[in-house]
Amino acid sequence: MPPPADIVKVAIEWPGAYPKLMEIDQKKPLSAIIKEVCDGWSLANHEYFALQHADSSNFYITEKNRNEIKNGTILRLTTSPAQNAQQLHERIQSSSMDAKLEALKDLASLSRDVTFAQEFINLDGISLLTQMVESGTERYQKLQKIMKPCFGDMLSFTLTAFVELMDHGIVSWDTFSVAFIKKIASFVNKSAIDVSILQRSLAILESMVLNSHDLYQKVAQEITIGQLIPHLQGTDQEIQTYTIAVINALFLKAPDERRQEMANILAQKQLRSIILTHVIRAQRAINNEMAHQLYVLQVLTFNLLEDRMMTKMDPQDQAQRDIIFELRRIAFDAESEPNNSSGSMEKRKSMYTRDYKKLGFINHVNPAMDFTQTPPGMLALDNMLYFAKHHQDAYIRIVLENSSREDKHECPFGRSSIELTKMLCEILKVGELPSETCNDFHPMFFTHDRSFEEFFCICIQLLNKTWKEMRATSEDFNKVMQVVKEQVMRALTTKPSSLDQFKSKLQNLSYTEILKIRQSERMNQEDFQSRPILELKEKIQPEILELIKQQRLNRLVEGTCFRKLNCRRRQDKFWYCRLSPNHKVLHYGDLEESPQGEVPHDSLQDKLPVADIKAVVTGKDCPHMKEKGALKQNKEVLELAFSILYDSNCQLNFIAPDKHEYCIWTDGLNALLGKDMMSELTRNDLDTLLSMEIKLRLLDLENIQIPDAPPPIPKEPSNYDFVYDCN
């Protein structure tokens, strides 16, 4: 008798018959189980049959995934993947339009299953679909006017099936013809096309560009930015998302020498203002996928600065030196140049050296040497010139204000600009590839064509203001830069919608305000370090940890929607996981779309008893992070990955939507297993709640000095005459 762990109780359906309740022995071959089921219904040729989940996924049961079958699962006996693939391969070539449409609809649904997909691809199904797209559209061109809905649905299902089949990574993208690319591009270039056809066509183009250098070149020849922009001016956010994804893919895969040219085209077509008007400021919420694509576009745009950031200044290059001369001219506006005599040449050098010192360069004689460090390289000089030309009054005021001071409190404009540019590049991660999971875009960077330069102009004025507020000297330079970085970072976290709003936020974050914030944070962290307070902390810490544990478990009961990712492209495929109210079972299952609230337990098909969980692993220890692929190497994805290990060689793999959810789930799962909650979020919550609880308990002792040691016990009195006998 096999152990109970190997026996699974399931229900099996067959059309026209009552469902069967039976026990499946997981040690028996799957073919033997299918034969047993077929024999029960007197069905011959059991090799033509297979089992699949009876839920909306309809995924086939295979030797690889059979361990996912749990007690209470409802299965369906159906035709085998090979038979089904063969039948559909024939049906989609039917001469009947209705039969063909129905077959393509079934194909689009079944293609999500990798088992079926493999069988259909083995029949050269991908080639058949591409031929239908290339030639089929012309074949039914005459019928399009009288059968437009049918034609649109047929093409939509064909493209959907193609996308689903390709997403399994079985077939290389390099195998497709120019004719197929032209046809897909033509759907995108049409002004009036069915939304579902347009969406899938954009998805196909994005995948082509991201997965093949040869296809990138062919797609780039067929699709122009001008043809994509009209799709951004519509109201369908999904179409807008896919459109920006295609633009990002073209941007990302473009050769270095082509990227700047492409950026110029984007500027000419006013892409930024169109996105600002029709996406960011549209009267609707921005979903996660759109936020990710905007973040990617933001990163790729800023990465155009990398070349200048990593370019050293050539002290012998006259054109580059002329920029420094221009900075001096704008600031000091020399009335006339001395004559070219040897004496006047010395005067000129002396005057230039004096002026360069006033401008705040480290090297007064040859300021070009200040720009030989990379980063920020020539980017710092570009920013200084932009500030001098486009904010001339502010530039002259800062330079003259500091050059006239003689009390060692002058703020060196040149040195400050160089260090500030370097700091802003670090904050915006200029030169780094975009993350696969990040949604952190800033609306204000879409409000100006020269957003980085304007960002610099605001921050250099902030730096000068903070320098004065701190009454800093050259020895305090690094301290000032730290304060400015904190001011900028705190202002950015509020996600200002415009540069003016960002400037307003900085006005409220003066040096005095930063000191108050630091003092408040320091009080929370350091002020309660006396022995009595530490003893009190130790006493109430278990209560706080129990409170945090209950909060984590309550969040697991609410559940979380997780996104399915792969290395080819981001997918709008989701699955949901939640803990049962009695904390004994994890319920999980696939979803068609992102839910708007909690997903009920009964709609989640799969279960995992908490008692079966062996361990929880994170990061590189996760099975799905050990696979090969570009996505798996992404540092940010590694930081969000965790897996539940159960039974023998079984696991449930997660990629959290963000760091907060990662901490919630890893804490909650560790709490269920009786282990310590070790996340950064737990440490922060513990510090915050401990601090609040201690402050509440010490309210009655306000303004009373708490000694480090208990007071001494007084000596006994010389007599007890003061004692009053109540009796």
TrEMBL record:
Domain ELMO: from-to ranges: 319-492
Subcellular location: Cytoplasm; Membrane
One CC-aspect GO term: cytoplasm
Any one GO biological process: actin filament organization
PANTHER family given in the database record: ENGULFMENT AND CELL MOTILITY, ENGULFMENT AND CELL MOTILITY PROTEIN 1
General function of this protein: Involved in cytoskeletal rearrangements required for phagocytosis of apoptotic cells and cell motility. Acts in association with DOCK1 and CRK. Was initially proposed to be required in complex with DOCK1 to activate Rac Rho small GTPases. May enhance the guanine nucleotide exchange factor (GEF) activity of DOCK1.
Name under which the protein is recorded: Engulfment and cell motility 1
The species this protein was found in: Moschus moschiferus (Siberian musk deer)
Taxonomic classification: Eukaryota, Metazoa, Chordata, Craniata, Vertebrata
